[in-house]
Design a protein that fits this description.
Blueprint: E1 2-7, E2 12-19, E3 24-31, H1 42-64, E4 73-79, H2 83-100, E5 104-108, H3 109-121, E6 127-131, E7 136-142, E8 145-151, H4 157-168, H5 179-187, E9 199-200, E10 203-204, H6 207-218, H7 224-250, E11 254-258, H8 265-278, E12 281-284, H9 287-290, H10 294-308
Parallel strand pairs: 1-4, 4-5, 6-11, 11-12
Antiparallel strand pairs: 1-2, 2-3, 6-7, 7-8, 9-10
Amino acid sequence: MISLGIESTAHTLGIGIIDSNGKEYSDVKSSYMPPFGEGIHPREAARHHSNKASFLIKGALKEAKLKPTDLKLISFSRGPGMGPCLRTGAVIARSLSGFYNIPLVGVNHVVSHIEIGKMLTKAKDPVILMVSGGTTQISSHVDDHYTIFGETLDISIGNCFDKFSREVGIHDPNNPWPGPVFDKVAAKGKKYFELPYSVKGMSVSFSGLLTAAIRLVKEEGVSIENAAYSLQETALSMLTEIAERAIAHTRAMELLVVGGFARNKRFQSMLQEICDDWNLKMHICPYRYASDNGTMIAWGGILQYKAAGSLKPEESLVLPDWRSDEVKIIW
């Protein structure tokens, strides 16, 4: 079974094609670039997705050397995400499904991140750390759901670093998010300044930390490099602590890190230390599929379709607030 997946939850429109054996045929994407110093404008991002959809779908099929009639499933991100962006992806998916008479499946974006990570790394029963621009949570498969042990109580780790970067002028003209440039700036920091450390059980809070880090630069004259370094060390220490708590709670033998922030090298080194202490294996989702992409949606669609069948168009409304622990994992 060959599935085409459409990812459109935020700034990226991704089209990916994969089959039920895990063979990857193509993965293409295009990202909305917000104006300098600004975040994502949902309606502008949705307009970008609409304008790029035909080009990307044709490109994915050409790269895969497939015709639309070779597809056996159309999968799309149903949520969580930005409403206008999700609706644009859903319309594209319904149009393809209806025109070519191909079954339609809507999948949870976070669960798809987890499932592509598990498939690619061969992780069996890991503690899962999902870290991205929109989500920060730690979970594990319990019975027939991904049970969330802890999560952000306000903003995500990616959003925290992005907002700090915009406020102090860290910018990457080639990417819609400043994460990789932020990492380079933080790596130049030499002096640590104490910042609020907020861990509550296995949940975290980043908003106070963000405000204090911005204040270091704007009110206390601390260099951007040292403030970024202090912000990174504090935030990542918080996440490492809750990861270790989840490991101790579950006695898991594996840790799987998924989401775009999984690419942060400093974070990986911190997590590796606790994995060594607990004698467990750490899996990092391959970088190409760590950030938002269509292939993870295509794979999630295959799992969902095999377990529960397809959606009727009238059942395919988007779910912007759809939590991963609301999805029944029956595959």
